[in-house]
Design goal:
Strand order of the largest sheet: 12-11-13-16-14-15
Number of helices: 12
Structural class: alpha/beta
Order of helices and strands: HEEEEEEEEEEHEHEHEEHHHEEHHHEHHE
CATH superfamily of the largest domain: Zn-dependent exopeptidases
Bound molecules: zinc ion
Strand content: 25-35%
Number of strands: 18
Distance between the termini: 36 Å
CATH topology of the largest domain: Aminopeptidase
Number of domains: 3
Radius of gyration: 26 Å
CATH architecture of the largest domain: 3-Layer(aba) Sandwich
Largest sheet: 6 strands, mixed
Length: 432
């Protein structure tokens, strides 16, 4: 990724005298061509600028020294061609930073134009489509596709070791029952094609909360799920609840992540922060954390829906709190309080193998429900889909993906051989 950033780095030096008043960028026009999108900034005088690309998500950053933004360019939400959005911010020392949020990766080219016709000075940025067919020839069979990875589910059994967590009136310790449930969930995830579990805590020992996050990140987790069992002084309180990080927790956390750049340098939403200035880092981290919380809420809602089938939940909606283990800026994170260990009947249930298994199944269904429509690119889950085109038959599709016809039908719950163009079939793993 860094290599690409460097490769995309271009320098253009104009004749702007450093002592001049700031140049004003007072308009932008966009055009979408079949092979590129052109962005033209109207400027009040000649400028110099630098340009670099950022990936995941794709962005192009344009820095213009000694410049400021005109009123008409303050907000530009209009999506044209490859540009989804244009944002601007004034940096230290009067550098104007313009960020183009892109639909997909682009090859940028930029140049300035002197006044001509009805226009004054302009800065032109062309975003060229990257020819995918040249980069990697179209593959004929799924087996030749680039290597796909498993979706990684990090399962965190709360507490452990010196920290027993909540203790029930019958002596049941939270750390023990949540580890049992976590192990059961891991076993279920293991059986799912295209999914891999990571148990953050594998035995009766304590792991610091930040370390739990770091283990998940090192394992490339796509989801972080922390399992707990509530304790409360009122024994009557019962039912499970599902938490995600609150925005308040997130915003104070952001400061922390920024302060610990060396920790966050490995990844924050796919963006390296160590070589960015603070303002950009903050903007990027904010976007990343916002997206992550949104994803977390969706997973959590799925999970809560499944847990409701097991009995009345404590709260009927997803709760938000500033739990440290939920503070990954880039991994959707959910904390499940499976039950109240302080409630006598729930304490008994928490010890019951069948109930532990039901809880694990409910969480698995919640995870599957979410990733069925949000499989991360590059995972088996994302690849195992086929959109029905004219002329497709079930037999052809089964042959093409090397699965039996019955398996394909069963996997998709198909009762007949009829297919509808545009529908999506899920493809079971090859050879199954
Ligand atoms: Zn707990």
């Amino acid at each position: 990724m860094n290599r690409l950033i460097t490769a995309c780095c271009l320098w253009f030096i104009g004749q702007a005298p450093v002592w001049a008043a700031p140049v004003e960028v007072d308009g932008v026009r966009l055009w979408a061509a079949p092979d590129h999108t052109r962005v033209v900034f109207d400027i009040s005088g000649p400028v110099e600028h630098t340009l670099f690309s950022l990936h995941d998500p794709e962005r192009l950053v344009i820095d213009v020294p000694a410049a400021r933004i005109g009123a008409s360019l303050k907000s530009q939400d209009q999506a044209v061609g490859m540009v989804r959005k244009i944002r601007t911010a004034l940096q230290d020392e009067g550098v104007l930073r313009i960020v183009l949020d892109l639909e997909r990766q682009a090859r940028p080219r930029s140049f300035t134009l002197k006044p001509g016709g009805q226009h004054g000075h302009r800065l032109v940025v062309d975003l060229y489509e990257i020819d995918v067919s040249q980069k990697s020839p179209v593959k004929k069979s799924v087996k030749e596709e680039p290597r796909l990875r498993d979706l990684v589910v990090a399962i965190d059994a709360g507490h452990g070791g010196d920290d027993p967590g909540a203790i029930g009136h019958g002596g049941t310790r939270e750390k023990d029952v949540v580890l049992s449930i976590a192990r059961r969930l891991a076993a279920l995830v293991e059986k799912e094609p295209g999914m891999r579990p990571v148990l953050i805590r594998e035995g009766d020992y304590y792991i610091g909360l930040r370390k739990r996050i770091n283990i998940a990140r090192k394992q490339g987790a796509d989801l972080f799920l922390s399992i707990h069992a509530d304790g409360f002084r009122d024994r009557r309180v019962k039912g499970s609840s599902v938490y995600v990080l609150s925005r308040r927790g997130a915003s104070s956390e952001m400061a922390r992540w920024l302060a610990e750049k060396e920790n966050s340098a490995d990844l924050a939403g796919g963006v390296r922060l160590d070589d960015k200035d603070d303002l950009l880092a903050e903007v990027l981290l904010d976007l990343s954390q916002t997206a992550t919380i949104e994803a977390s809420v969706e997973v959590a809602a799925n999970m809560l829906g499944e847990l409701k089938r097991l009995g009345k939940t404590h709260k009927s909606s997803v709760q938000q709190a500033g739990f440290v283990v939920l503070k990954s800026p880039d991994i959707p994170s959910v904390l499940v309080e499976t039950a109240f260990i302080s409630n006598t009947s729930e304490e008994r249930k928490l010890r019951d193998r069948r109930h532990q298994e039901s809880l694990a199944r409910a969480m698995l269904q919640g995870i599957k429900g979410y990733f069925a429509s949000h499989a991360p690119p590059g995972t088996h889950l994302a690849a195992f889909e086929h959109v029905i085109r004219p002329g497709d038959t079930l037999g052809h599709i089964a042959q093409r993906y090397d699965v039996s016809l019955n398996r394909l039908k069963g996997y998709n719950g198909l009762k007949s051989d009829r297919l509808r163009i545009g529908d999506t079939l899920r493809i079971p793993p090859a050879g199954s």
